[in-house]
Fold:
Amino acid sequence: MFNQYHHVKGENMHKIDPEECQFCGACQSVCPADAIVHPDRKNYYEINDNCVDCGACEDECGFNAISTDSSAE
Structure:
């Protein structure tokens, strides 16, 4: 389904900084892979292995809480 992206499952490069995440849900609403999840009892989102590294969440986040993890490249 997401064949336009080069992605190796489990090696997503996008990360959410829990210190910056305002738990607004904007990123989750634009994720085409349903990769943004809410961990139990935490006030932030995480990106799981479904991520296809499209960058939609990073573009949508108004708090700069999502960034590309350059160490994953």
In short: Residues 23 and 43 are 6 Å apart (CA to CA).
